[in-house]
Structure formats: structure tokens, C-alpha cells
Design brief:
Immunoglobulin-like, two-stranded parallel sheet, mainly beta
């Protein structure tokens, strides 16, 4: 497992760290990000965009905590690269931008997983794949209503 600083965190008015579900598909490519609880279940969004520019943009903002998963999918003609990250901490620098410190726990590329993800993550992974192939996606795909 490798650590990284790859995910920018928004800070809510109540001071909570939050990450956007975002992305969508184009004609032959697509990219998406899904956020889920540490048990793979859907999270409740604190904000969902419903107007303005929506196509393949930010769609739902979720408060996150250590142990939550961030799933990132990219495809070219449905040849997927999927990475699953677990949040282990948050940056505590004095800079304005905050980041989720993550560890990569699984990766799918060239048709196979480096290590098989837990069964409880299956729905979140499928939602991430669906979102990355959703042409000009305009809404969230993995949110607790």
C-alpha cells in the first residue's frame, strides 16, 4: 500500500472535511470519482448541485473521515483503470488547501486486479464504472437519499 496526497478536501461551514463525487463520460473516454463509507455503503451528501454547469463536473459533496474510501475510475473505450484509496489522515499544514492523505489499497488495470477488493466494495466500484461511462453525466450515482 502506498501513501499519497492526491485528493483536495473542501472544508464545510461546520469545519468538516468533504470530497466531491464527480466525473462522467465522453464519446470514447470517461473519468469519475465515488466516495463511500468504510463499509462500502453510500454516504449522505451535504450538498448536491442541481443547476449551472453539471456535465462531467462536481455533483455531490460528502463529509469524509478516516477509513472512508475514494474510488477513481478512468476508461478508454471501456478499458478500465480503477484505483481504490482509503483515507488515513488529513493534511494539517497552515496552507489554505487541505488534502486527504490516502493509501492505495487496490488497482484494476489491463483486465485484472492487483489484489481482489472486498465484496462489500462491489456496488461502489460498479457505480464508479457506471458514472465514468455516463455520457455527459449531470448527477450523482452513489448517494444515500
Amino acid at each position: 500500500m502506498e501513501a499519497s496526497f492526491g485528493f483536495k478536501v473542501e472544508i464545510t461551514k461546520k469545519g468538516l472535511p468533504a470530497i466531491w463525487e464527480m466525473g462522467g463520460g465522453y464519446t470514447n473516454t470517461g473519468e469519475s470519482r465515488i466516495v463511500c463509507n468504510n463499509d462500502g455503503s453510500k454516504k449522505r451528501a451535504i450538498y448536491q448541485k442541481r443547476s449551472g454547469h453539471l456535465a462531467n463536473d462536481k455533483h455531490a459533496l460528502f463529509p469524509v473521515e478516516c477509513g472512508d474510501y475514494i474510488i477513481h475510475a478512468f476508461h478508454h473505450r471501456k478499458d478500465f483503470t480503477i484505483r481504490l484509496y482509503r483515507i488515513v489522515a488529513f493534511s494539517s499544514s497552515e496552507r489554505e488547501e487541505k488534502y486527504a492523505i490516502t493509501e492505495k489499497v487496490h488497482e484494476f488495470s489491463r483486465g485484472e486486479w492487483d489484489s481482489e477488493p472486498a465484496a462489500f466494495l462491489k456496488d461502489a466500484i460498479e457505480a464508479c464504472k457506471d458514472k465514468s461511462t455516463c455520457y455527459h453525466c449531470r448527477g450523482s450515482h452513489f448517494v444515500l437519499e
